[in-house]
Design a protein that fits this description.
The protein has helices at 5-28, 33-65. By secondary structure, the protein is an all-alpha fold. The longest helix is centred in the last third of the chain and has 33 residues, at 33-65.
Amino acid sequence: MFADPLFLLVLVACLGVAVILLMGIAGFGREGEDASKRSNRFMRWRIYAQAVAIVLILVFVFFRRMGG
């Protein structure tokens, strides 16, 4: 399974979502308007990255069920 390039792409996308999430959560702990804006930006990026990860997961499952 680790030799499948699509699986590795899904794995990288999920790890990217986790990293962006942690960076956004870390920003919530800081004070100041700039930190708040940065944290909100990370959370917006997380939503986009999460959408990409979900699409990749669906594509991966589709091709695995088709016998690929």
